[in-house]
Write a structure and sequence with these properties.
Structural class: mainly beta
Low-confidence stretches: 1-23, 252-264
Order of helices and strands: EHEEEHEEEEEHEEEEEEEEEHEEEH
Shape: globular
Length: 264
């Protein structure tokens, strides 16, 4: 059974998120126009620190110039969630990690996260764009295929993330059936006030559930954007970007959208 982009909507999102993936997992990442704004953080010991069959996401804190990260997990039987035993600090520039104590974690400042999908954003089908706060934003891939995790509005409302992808979602029938996804993913981070593109994250993927990666993407403290790159192995690798308001230079994305909206 094979679904191409645009037909994925017909599959319940919960089923897609829980579908086993059969092929080897692979992901590439490219950041433009400022690759130095992003760092990949890898915590190889994360996997051995906790094993909980639950929904888990990254939580962040700050201590001086360092950022701290832990994993927070919940499930339907829990009245309250629980943190991973291990917590780590890391340098935003280098991605270098170091384990921290529970006391250091408790005394660090909690950084609020936001996974808000703004309901007043309007998708204009057929021209690959959406309208939000009177501005037009380009959609690079197939926005309609990822449901409620398509958009991410930062906590202060300054930035808007647009998650999209293009490619193939294929499921095998039978007792040993499973699913495979492969294609190109796109995460466009826009400045809401100007409508300009601040950062663009993209890459190839195969053998992984791209919906789950989008589901756990988040804004941290308004200007940090986090994208898990290895959500199947305990969130042990993630990309974090310090997003700045873009300059007033001409924005090719805006020009492309305007050309589509007002063809000659």
């Amino acid at each position: 059974m094979k679904f191409r982009l645009g037909y994925v909507r017909a599959i319940p999102l919960a089923a897609v998120l829980s579908s086993p993936l059969l092929s080897a997992s692979n992901l590439t990442t490219e950041v433009t126009p400022n690759p130095g704004a992003c760092t990949t953080v890898y915590i190889p010991r994360w996997k051995a620190d906790w094993i909980i069959p639950a929904y888990c996401e990254l939580r962040f804190r700050a201590s001086g110039s360092d950022l701290l990260v832990g994993v927070y997990c919940t499930n339907v039987s829990m009245k309250e969630g629980t943190y991973s035993p291990g917590k780590y600090s890391f340098k935003l520039v280098s991605g270098h990690t170091q384990k921290v104590s529970e006391e250091e974690w408790r005394h660090a400042n909690v950084l609020p996260d936001s996974r808000v999908n703004p309901r007043d954003a309007r998708i204009v089908h057929g021209v690959d764009r959406l309208i939000y706060k009177g501005k037009r934003f380009r959609i690079t891939g197939g926005l309609e295929s990822i449901g409620g995790d398509a958009l991410r509005l930062s906590g202060g409302g300054s930035f808007l993330g647009v998650n999209s992808w293009s490619g193939v979602f294929r499921c095998n029938d039978g007792l040993f059936g499973g699913c495979n996804m492969h294609g190109q993913y796109y995460v466009d981070l826009y400045d809401v006030k100007s409508g300009r593109l601040a950062l663009a994250i993209s890459g190839q993927f195969s053998g992984r559930n791209i919906f789950s990666m989008f589901q756990k993407s988040a804004w941290i403290s308004d200007h940090y954007f986090v994208l898990p790159e290895d959500e199947r192995r305990g969130l042990s690798r993630f990309l974090i970007c310090d997003v700045k308001t873009p300059s007033n230079a001409p924005d090719e994305n805006i020009q492309a959208v305007e050309a589509q909206a007002h063809p000659q």
